[in-house]
Amino acid sequence: MSLLIGTVVPKPAPKHLMDALASAQVQTSAGEASGFQLSFSFSDKSYLDEAIVLLAGVGPIVRVILTVSLNGSQEVVMDGVVTNHQVAPDMATGQMNLTVSGSDLTALMGLIDFTGIPYPAMPAEAQVALIIAKYAMFGLAPMVIPRVFMDFTIPSKEIPTHQGTDLAHVKRLAQEAGYVFYLFPGSQPGNSFAYWGPEVKIGAVQPALNVNMDQHTNVESFSASFDGDAKSIPVIFIQNEQTRAPIPIPIPDISPLNPALGRVKPIPVKYHKLTNTANYNPVKAVGLGLGEAARSADVISGNGSLDVLRYGHILKARSLVGVRGMGEALNGTYFVKSVTHNIKRGEYKQDFSLTRNALISNRQALPT
Question: Domain 205-227+300-340+350-356 in CATH: superfamily?
Answer without folding.
Answer: Baseplate protein-like domain - beta roll fold (2.30.300.10)
